[in-house]
Design a protein that fits this description.
The complex is a heterodimer.
Chain A (H helix, E strand, L loop, with lengths): L8 H36 L3 H8 L6 H11 L5 H13 L13 H36 L4 H15 L2 H15 L11 H31 L2 H8 L4 H39 L4 H10 L3 H29 L7
Helix pairs in contact in A: 1-4, 1-12, 2-3, 5-6, 5-8, 5-10, 5-12, 6-8, 7-8, 7-10, 8-10, 10-11, 10-12, 11-12
Chain B lengths: L1 H23 L1 H4 L31 H37 L1 H15 L3 H12 L3 H12 L1 H15 L2 H8 L4 H37 L11 H8 L8 H28 L10
Helix pairs in contact in B: 1-3, 1-11, 3-4, 3-6, 3-7, 3-9, 3-11, 4-7, 5-6, 6-9, 7-9, 8-9, 9-10, 9-11, 10-11
The chains are: A mainly alpha, B mainly alpha.
């Protein structure tokens, strides 16, 4: 049986139980994540009161520092400060930016929307390119096309997004003058950042999709279909692609990390007002609450996406059980 | 099939060795002083005297690419070696002895792995305030965990194998069992994973330098060279393109080498290859 169905009623209940269990298991992970993030900041930030006053352009004297420390709760012991911060985090309060006094969560949410626009477009573009290329290269294994695709894949894997961005700018903005260098919040400005962000991911996708399709093509059911005279397009779409969905979904799930990292770099190059630019500006300005908020948000999103990937995995292949 | 695998392995071993030797002898090969500025000859196109042109301070780009190769390549190699040794040792000890220490270390690893590797590295480097050593610490902190997980899971599986039990019964101490029986069996997997990481770490390091979180001026490093030259992409593109080319070619060679080693040793690293 090549096809799988997951619509049997008893599975629904099993799925719900599974999701419940996974959500419960998230709690300790979230605790560790928040603890790691908080301790890193605690160790790194030196005297936040001084940092805050300096960031606001005030030359701090001892009295002002002491007052600020008391107000920020810096005289409390580590564990109390962590507790307070954790409660704040859980209620959506990540403190205020040192530089402009705005709430960190608000800043991050606004920027997150901008980043998501680029990231979703880049992910879609990667899929549109890599699915046909991966399949084509697998079906024509060890032909010229396969070698070409594999070489391009390797090239894409070795070009980080910041280089892709610079090469694209050189080609399209300076040589051909087709696009503006800075994204400036416009649709036209989005084209190059999206391509630059999608290039390294496309490389990874093609590699994985090709490997997965090759593995499926080696299975008995393909030989069986070929022996029965089933047309290639029929068994490719009906069986091989269907069975490769698991691997493809996993790959998409794991690309989220690269998307975030790519965004940091791409946004600082194209001056796109997303989280990446926000965090780089905050690093330059030593604006620790914003860096802290960024790290914790990314970690939470990353963990959630991994969870969704696992759930999708189970839904598509009910044979998978807890090991 | 095996011969073909060996051939590729040899080719890429040779190429990787060639780059490493090139970077080792970069001091001799440099046509000019990589840090010597020359206000009269800024942003000059490639010529016989400056084969890769000059940058905005009149420094020789070829000399800087060669001088930067040492930083870029050796930082990556040292970092991979250090994280591999540290991570594997931690993983083997955790897997072998188990207990409360194991649980604590594994929870920490879960926590670190809950972050995308480079996001964590950027955050840590940003907090530490940049610099080459801090960038290495940041990348190392974010990348030792897969070795520990890999080593630990293999040790737990091997611990119950008969040959390990036999070694114990015949009087081997813990050290001798780990060193003599367990380690040789997990070494190929660890080596393979480490080999596939060299290119990734090289890109990570260049990325941090590009974001001004790594190597500081005037020291030459490919990522920081690209970063500082990006403003003159229109007027002196060679100052960006040559270090970029050096980076891409080196990463490709090390990636190919990693894959060749994996094929040759026939190691499968499913769960560890996710990121």
């Amino acid at each position: 049986m090549a096809r799988r169905t997951a619509s049997l009623p008893f599975l629904e209940e099993k799925m719900l139980k599974y999701i419940q269990k996974r959500l419960l298991r998230l709690i300790p992970i979230l605790l560790v994540i928040t603890f790691v993030t908080f301790s890193l900041m605690y160790l790194a930030s030196g005297d936040p009161a001084q940092k805050k006053l300096v960031a606001q352009g005030i030359v701090p004297d001892d009295a002002a520092l002491e007052a600020e420390r008391e107000e920020m709760g810096l005289n409390d012991p580590f564990i109390i400060r962590y507790g307070k911060w954790l409660v704040g985090f859980l209620t959506g309060d990540l403190g205020e930016s040192y530089s402009n006094g705005q709430p960190v969560s608000g800043l991050l949410w606004t920027a997150m929307g901008k980043t998501a626009a680029v990231a979703v477009c880049a992910l879609a573009l990667s899929l549109v390119i890599s699915l046909p290329l991966g399949i084509w290269s697998a079906v024509r294994q060890n032909t010229f096309i396969d070698y070409l695709v594999r070489f391009l894949t390797f090239f894409a894997n070795a070009v980080p997004s910041f280089l892709a961005a610079l090469l694209l700018i050189y080609l399209f903005c300076i040589k051909l003058k087709w696009f503006p260098v800075l994204a400036k919040d416009s649709f036209r400005g989005l084209v190059l950042p999206v391509i630059a962000l999608s290039l390294p991911i496309t490389g990874k996708f093609v590699k994985q999709i090709r490997a997965e399709i090759l593995e499926q093509l080696g299975e008995g059911y393909v030989t069986g279909a070929q022996a029965r005279g089933v047309r290639q397009s029929t068994y490719m779409i009906r069986d091989v692609l269907h069975n490769s969905m698991l691997a493809i979904i996993t790959v998409i799930g794991f690309s989220v990390g690269s998307l975030f990292v790519g965004s940091v770099v791409i946004e600082s190059i194209f001056q796109w007002p997303g989280v990446g630019k926000l965090v780089m500006d905050s690093i330059t300005a030593r604006d620790y609450p914003v860096i802290q908020g960024f790290v914790i948000y990314i970690a939470v999103i990353y963990v959630m996406i991994n969870l969704l990937t696992d759930i999708a995995y189970r839904y598509l292949d009910p044979r998978i059980t807890d090991s | 099939m095996k011969n073909k695998k060996n051939l590729w392995l040899r080719i890429f071993l040779f190429l990787a060795a060639a780059i490493i030797i090139l970077s080792l002898f970069s001091d001799v090969l440099m046509p000019n002083d990589p840090n010597a500025t020359n206000a009269m000859r800024i942003k000059e196109a490639p010529s016989a005297e400056y084969p890769f042109g000059t940058d905005d301070l009149g420094r020789c780009v070829l000399s800087r690419v060669l001088s930067g190769s040492k930083t870029s390549i050796f930082c990556a190699l040292i970092l991979v070696a250090a994280t591999a040794v540290f991570g594997s040792a931690a993983g083997m000890l955790c897997g072998y002895y188990g207990g409360a220490a194991d649980s604590i270390v594994m929870r920490i690893i879960d926590g670190i792995m809950a972050f995308p590797q480079m996001v964590l590295a950027i955050a840590v480097a940003g907090m530490l305030g940049g610099g080459m050593l801090n960038a290495m610490l940041a990348l190392g902190f974010a990348s030792w965990t897969p070795y520990a997980r890999l080593a630990r899971s293999r040790v737990i599986a091997l611990k119950r194998e008969e040959f390990v039990l036999a070694a114990r019964i015949s009087g081997c101490g813990d050290g001798a069992v780990i060193g003599g029986y367990i380690f040789p069996n997990i070494f190929p997997s660890l080596l393979t994973y480490a080999a596939t990481q060299v290119g990734t770490i090289m890109l990570g390091f260049a990325g941090l330098s590009f974001l001004n979180l790594g190597v500081q001026q005037p020291q030459a490093e490919w990522g920081s060279m690209i970063s500082s030259a990006r403003g003159m992409l229109a007027t002196a593109p060679w100052a960006v393109l040559y270090p970029a080319l050096a980076l891409i070619v080196s990463v490709m060679i090390f990636n190919y080498l990693g894959d060749a080693i994996r094929d040759r040793l026939d190691v499968h690293l499913e769960s560890e290859e996710r990121r």
